[in-house]
Amino acid sequence: MVAISMYLFAASVALVAVYLKYLYRRRRRDEPPMVPGGLIWGNCKEFGEHAVRFLHKSNKSCGDIFTIRLLHQYLTIVMDPHSYDRFTREKNFDFDPIQKQVNHNVFSFELINPRKMLKEAGKTVRGHYMNNIMQSFSKYLNETFADISTKDILGNLHEIPKGGKWCTSNLRVLTARTVFTSLFKTIFGNPRPEDTFEPMSVFENFEIYHKYFNYMWLGLPSSLFPAATKALKALVKQPCSSDLLSREDLSHYIRFSTEYMLNCNQAEAEIMGHNLVYLHVNYNTFRVSFWAMYFLLEHREAWVALSTEVQAAIDEKKQYCSNDEPVVFNLEDVDSLPILDSIVKETMRTTSGVFMVRAIAEDTEFEMENGQKYYLRKGDKVAMYPPALHKDPEIFEEPEQFKYDRFVDATFYKNGREVKNPVIAFGSLCPGKRLAITQSKWFLMCLVNMFDLELLEGQSTCPDSAYHGHEILPPKNDVEVRFRHKDSFQTLSFE
Fold first, then answer.
1. How far is Cα of residue 185 from the mean position of the Cα atoms in its chain?
2. If phi over 0 gives left and psi between -120 and 50 gives alpha, with beta otherwise, what is residue 113?
3. Element (H or E) spanning 295, and its range?
4. Which residues pair with 327 in a beta bridge?
């Protein structure tokens, strides 16, 4: 009995020591206020249940900057949108450790000299490279639009519905068969018939793996999640680097990054891990496209407004081509459509879950836009959480509502001052955010040009707030839709 008592006493002392060393700390002078939380988990429960609601509540009680604790990690949150530029430019706020944490914890690899690689690789998704990518994406998208009416999900041919008959599908599956498949082929080229690394199987495993992303990012081992482990084993069954490099239609990004990593003598497993990170980033384009399509179907006035705008643009272009030629658009043309631009921005505002996190490299005096100064500790993390800004009722009237024309000729204010960056969907460092937005816009243009599409009666969904931290939130459930090709349309092409 005495031995048991001594054991329990020793265990208690050890637990207290661990708590005092890793979890407990006092607020120092001029540090941001700390949000009270649980003894072990800190603020994990409230943040996990509904991050936006929790941060708005903390904002009211603590002000525009405060510190929360997620397990053993202290995280200072900046809630002032006017301090965005100061946050992104602070040299002591370092993204490299965050990137390494994601790469290592979630995708099991490390990059050698990541800043150099990502700086150079990032050039391959901008400028003239972006035009090349959009041309490939447009080509593959037209192919998938033809396939969804002539093939089932397994790729088997079936009879094309005649006389305006409707096909039915789950919306998420429909978006995967079109947008995700087109993105996949644009990145990796056309898979060979014998490849198991092909769009729909990768999509299904990505869906599973992403459910556990936040847990693994925080450092929980993937072995705790058998479904994630199984999905990852399937995702790393990729063609080897030499096979990929032999493909003429391989993207410039994957070609450059693969050659770079080979020159650094990195292993095939690390190259495959990096390929998954890049696909993970592009996966957000799929999610934006899903939500934009859903909102267009839920708000028929938005579908009508977009269809009218796109048709007017097509009619203007048709003056310069024959009826049997594709109608050609370029980047400037796509960017000139205000309803389309507003729909995509409103979709990202409504469904964004991105967490802009930085590691604090040195003890830092951070000055907010209003002149207030706070001391932030080396070793902590600092973040801005755009979804909390996107749902701020002072910036956006009725922020929970989707309004397709919200961003048409609009300016937004906070504390009487214009908000320069009202929508922050992909963070400040993403080199491909313009490409992602353009791909989503192009998909919507082609969709309303070629198809009639409707939600089946009684079908609805909403973003799943349990996944805040993902760049774009997944839906709580899929919905069923019906679609059919329009009787007459002219194919669109990007140049």
1. 19
2. left
3. helix 268-298
4. 492
Inter-residue contact 274 to 257 (CB < 8 Å):
yes
> In 3D, which of 149, 144, 139 has the Cα closest to residue 485?
149
pTM for the model stands at 0.90
Do 133 and 451 touch, CB atoms closer than 8 A? no
- Residue 299: other Cβ atoms inside 10 A: 16
Residue 381 annotated as binding? Answer: yes
pLDDT tens series, the chain, 495 aa: 444 444 444 444 444 444 444 455 787 989 999 999 998 999 999 988 889 999 999 999 999 999 999 988 999 999 999 999 999 999 999 998 888 888 888 888 888 888 888 889 889 998 999 999 999 999 999 999 998 876 655 555 455 554 578 999 999 999 999 999 999 999 999 988 888 899 999 999 999 998 888 888 878 888 899 999 999 999 999 999 999 999 999 999 999 999 999 999 999 999 999 999 999 989 999 999 999 999 999 999 999 999 999 999 999 998 888 777 899 999 999 999 999 999 999 999 999 998 899 999 999 999 999 999 999 999 999 999 999 999 999 999 999 999 999 999 999 999 999 999 999 887 766 778 899 999 999 999 999 999 999 999 999 999 998 888 788 999 999 999 999 999 888 899 998
The rounded distance, in Å, linking the Cα atoms of 189 and 139 is: 12
Q: How far is CA 91 from CA 96, 149, 383, in A?
A: 12, 52, 14
**Which of 153, 381, 140, 146 has its CA nearest to residue 282?**
140
Question: In angstroms, how far is the first alpha carbon of the chain from the final one?
Answer: 81
Q: What does the DSSP assignment read for 348-396? A: HHHHB-B-EEEEE-S-EEEEPTTS-EEEE-TT-EEEE-HHHHHT-TTTS
430 is in an annotated binding site: yes
Residue 152: CB atoms within 10 A of its CB come to 13
**Which residue, among 416, 421, 390, has the nearest Cα to 86 in the 3D structure?**
421
Looking at residue 121, its amino acid is A
3-state secondary structure 162-218: CCCCCEEEEHHHHHHHHHHHHHHHHHHCCCCCCCCCCHHHHHHHHHHHHCCHHHHHC
Q: Which amino acid appears at position 95 of this protein? A: F
60 annotated among ligand-binding-site residues: no
Q: Say if residue 279 carries a ligand binding annotation.
A: no
CA atoms within 13 A on the CB side of 347: 30
Q: Give percent helix, percent strand, percent coil of the chain, each to the nearest 5.
A: 50, 15, 35
C-alpha dist (Å) from residue 229 to 204, 272, 466: 14, 15, 21
Compute the distance between CA of residue 93 and CA of residue 103 in angstroms, rounded to an integer: 19
